[in-house]
Amino acid sequence: MADVAYEPVIGLEIHVQLKTRTKMFCGCALSFGEDPNTRTCPVCLGLPGTLPVVNAEAIHYGLMIGMALDCELAPRSIFHRKNYFYPDLPKGYQVSQYDIPLARDGGLGDVRIHRVHLEEDAAKLVHVGASGRIHSAESSDVDFNRGGTPLVEIVSEPDIRSASEAAEWLRLLRVTLRQLGVSDVNMEEGSLRCDANVSLRPAGATELGVKTELKNMNSFRFIERGVDAEIARQEGILRDGGRIEQETLHYDVRSGAISSLRSKEEAHDYRYFPEPDLVPIAPTEEMVERARVAIPELPAARAERIERDFGAAADQAKLLAFRPDVGDFYEQAVAAAGDGGDARAIANWTCNDLMAALGDGKELADAKVTPAALAELVAMVGAKDVAQSAAKEVLATLVAEGGEPAAIVAAAGLGRTDDGELAAIVDRAMADQADAVEKIRAGNDKAIGAIMGAVMRETKGRADGGEVQRLIRERL
Questions:
Q1: 212/254 same-domain check
Q2: Is pLDDT at 303 greater than 60 in this prediction?
Q3: What sections of 188-323 are H helices per DSSP?
Q4: pLDDT tens by residue, 372-409
Q5: Do 399 and 272 fall within a single domain?
Q6: Full domain range(s) for residue 325
Q7: Which of the two residues, 139 and 83, has the higher pLDDT score?
């Protein structure tokens, strides 16, 4: 099948640790980084004779997530026991939801949501070995602190068609959950974990191929690399005439290798049955309303509003919505500019120049620039009181030191060059760059850069580039 073009089909299963005060079915406080096995009790350890009680705030957060993802809320949902043996599962089963989840049939962006359900997290296995790799560990210890942490599992439909699209959609989901305030969605600490179901099929086909599952990837970069590696592995097998086996896989981020963990389980392997110690969840009107009013403006809606109301480009609106701190700064700058402000120009300066001035690894909260100062600087550029190149110097000073743009321009002598002085400078530059003048007259427009560069050097960036170009062409 060497001549067949294959299409990847990808669905994601995302586990979100909820930011409640206590665990899902007991009163143990949630924490990260505590000494092992110090946040446990008889209930979360599954000791005989104990009875679980559902965390009401976890249900509230689950309802918020379901509504934010445009899902249908179940009028009645139940918990099940998902039975399997693993060292990090003290009861020998996980309390989860099976055939009647909290919410289903929603969507985010272009990806449909299959289901949203509540469950408890397993404990954490700590593998000790010289190489740090799971399969070469000399011993494995169990830390039960994480066991019983409230989780919401979000399962997408197989609507994703590339590794980059999977990472991009997960970024949208993450910022949506963060905006909701239901989780800190810190992938490094494991509060957002992602499994990817990957299959291939001939391009144009409608029938799904055999899927594999990549487990527990904890960064956007590793998700993209892991899915790409699995797509390449499956394509190699199919082109060699082989068959894909349905199994659960591990992606080694160090070597880029994919290895098999176990054959893929089916629902009957877990012997689901209703949890006898927990009553069904039947959200009241008051519970639903409380969740509804707690939902803020979400990133997708904010991006649409910024693009519609302020005329920002789609990619800029997306950045401003995905980065709430940057979006808030931008909207405050637009408000400071008033009715005569240029919201589109402020978006350009915020998304391009301000982000560049911050540099890698620096947060907007660390900068000294205020929204009003940026609005004033953009207005000065629009009025040609300062050239754009000089304004970037002013912005760098604002980010590092704060202050007022007009005062910085005056102190540094960055104000606009006098019209008569600029015309004389252009004349001298054209006389000095006679070769460039001839090239322009011969049809080589790029040669104008040499003349403009000479003007900018003499004016130390104070000249307006558009005005310089107009004067050059006028003289030509």
A1: yes
A2: yes
A3: 220-239, 285-294, 299-310, 314-322
A4: 999 999 999 998 888 887 899 899 999 999 999 999 98
A5: no
A6: 299-412
A7: 83
